Design the sequence.
């Protein structure tokens, strides 16, 4: 997959994927090299096809939320099943106790644009 | 509703995952009354890391806290830390603490957990260890230095995890278990055989035998293994042979106990105002699950009972374990193939990621996965929803199990 920041400036977001690249109920990780954030960012697509973005690393142990299970408004960590709200990043299920960081995502013309550091 | 049925105070005794889940679920579902959590530890902590990351070192107690210290105030939970309950008076609704304080409440929830079983082989002391509490992990850690000779008695999940951690720290490990292989009932014979073989691959001497005697010597422990002519010398020994539920408080108060504090489907003990959750509790018709999530779910059920709310939906039991950098998960029940049951392998056993499913007819009843958590997530939903599946679909790694599941929703 290619991902690039383009020349369109911060306000347009970073084009990170085509929406068809992300199956419903799954996610992909976008490297911090591209997002410019401390952590990688997981783009997660829910069962309704809507895309969400959270910091990729689970706040409990080192695991990629992009490899998690997306269902009922949450992503479930692939290691210990900590659950995070897709929209707010809040912990919905232990063992994680610290919320994660949500980021704004927009889909335009079938392309996913990420706004790192902006709240959804 | 009569006044007596309104619960306005709850005391939870025990600061493990079951106790903390009980108080969290009560608040989550709108309980507004007094809520007290009695914990032997100043801050309740999570136990799974004690045989893994925490035992390996470089982590502090804060990093394994079940909740941040400020959470208790935010949730209006009176955390009575460093306190031990010494008496329970169910009719009076009272719990007495070792320092003489008496807490009273409309409902008391026992979440007293369990202790590591100590077989009568030798006194637990400076060189003979068990592993359940953070202090026990700290003591064991100090002995896991490069070249140290460690004997682990019992190759279940805890014994295997400690073997893996000890190897990472450079210790020499002898792992003893009478079963060949251990865990066959939990993961099926084929996966159990492969998992146990990982010990040998990682330089552990894995022996199918038992320990006859342990004798502390000035330099360590002399262990006599059954079938060996001479005893062997070790620097440290870990006894990892199981869990004994902590039922003393309940039994002394006259509650019914039998391999656990007996509870009904709503976690209520033989006394209507006392509930029990987690490793200390057992449903009459069930085995104790002894897994992290089972304890958490007990807490959710107890909270629902106290609030007179519908119980949370049931789900197949789920667990995880880690060894040698591999992540193992299981859900439901694994059975050997017979007239009723089929074993379906997805991928190849021994080549992670892979998973193994047990089907009864066209229904999934259990699954085990190595480095393929989402297969177990899918299997769990198939079990919970009673989905009909084809063995050929499950066996094909090209089948997207989420799509398969979604197609049936």
Sequence:
């Amino acid at each position: 997959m290619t991902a690039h920041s383009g020349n369109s400036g911060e306000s347009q977001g970073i084009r990170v994927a085509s929406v068809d690249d992300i199956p419903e109920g799954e996610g992909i990780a976008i490297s911090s090299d591209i997002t410019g954030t401390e952590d990688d960012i997981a783009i997660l697509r829910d069962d309704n096809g809507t895309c969400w973005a959270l910091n990729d690393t689970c706040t409990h142990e080192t695991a990629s939320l992009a490899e998690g299970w997306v269902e009922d408004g949450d992503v479930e960590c692939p290691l210990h099943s900590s659950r995070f709200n897709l929209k707010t990043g809040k912990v919905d299920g232990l063992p994680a106790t610290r919320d994660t960081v949500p980021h704004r995502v927009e889909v335009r013309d079938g392309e996913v644009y990420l706004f790192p550091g902006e709240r959804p | 509703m009569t006044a007596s049925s309104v619960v306005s105070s709850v005391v939870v005794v025990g600061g493990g995952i079951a106790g903390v889940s009980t108080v969290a679920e009560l608040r989550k579902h709108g309980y507004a009354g007094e809520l007290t959590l009695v914990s032997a530890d100043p801050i309740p902590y999570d136990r799974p890391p004690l045989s893994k990351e925490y035992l390996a070192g470089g982590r502090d107690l804060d990093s394994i806290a079940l909740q941040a210290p400020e959470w208790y105030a935010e949730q209006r939970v009176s955390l009575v830390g460093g306190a031990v309950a010494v008496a329970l008076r169910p009719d009076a609704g009272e719990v007495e603490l070792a320092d003489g304080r008496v807490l009273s409440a409309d409902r008391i929830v026992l979440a007293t957990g369990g202790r590591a079983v100590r077989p009568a082989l030798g006194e637990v002391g400076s060189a003979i260890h068990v592993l359940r509490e953070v202090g026990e992990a700290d003591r064991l850690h100090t002995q896991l230095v490069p070249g140290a000779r460690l004997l682990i008695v019992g190759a279940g999940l805890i014994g295997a995890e400690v073997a893996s951690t000890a190897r990472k720290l450079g210790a020499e490990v002898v792992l003893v278990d009478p079963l060949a292989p251990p865990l066959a009932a939990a993961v099926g014979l084929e996966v159990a055989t492969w998992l146990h073989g990982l010990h040998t691959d990682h330089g552990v001497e894995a022996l199918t035998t038992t320990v006859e005697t342990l004798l502390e010597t000035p330099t360590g422990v002399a262990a006599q293994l059954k079938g060996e002519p001479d005893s062997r010398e070790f620097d440290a020994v870990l006894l990892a042979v199981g869990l004994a539920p902590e039922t003393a408080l309940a039994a002394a108060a006259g509650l019914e106990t039998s391999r656990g504090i007996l509870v009904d489907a709503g976690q209520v003990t033989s006394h209507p105002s006392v509930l029990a959750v987690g490793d200390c509790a057992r449903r009459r018709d069930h085995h104790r699950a002894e897994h992290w999530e089972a304890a958490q779910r007990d807490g959710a059920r107890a909270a629902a009972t106290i609030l007179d709310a519908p119980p949370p939906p049931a789900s197949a039991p789920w667990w995880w374990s880690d060894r040698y950098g591999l992540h193992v998960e299981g859900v439901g029940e694994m059975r050997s193939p017979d007239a009723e049951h089929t074993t379906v392998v997805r991928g190849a056993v021994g080549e992670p990621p892979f998973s193994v499913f047990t089907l009864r007819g066209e229904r999934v009843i259990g699954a085990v996965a190595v480095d393929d958590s989402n297969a177990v997530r899918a299997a769990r939903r198939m079990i919970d929803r009673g989905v009909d599946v084809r063995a050929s679909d499950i066996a094909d790694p090209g089948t997207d199990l989420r799509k398969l599941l979604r197609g049936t929703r």
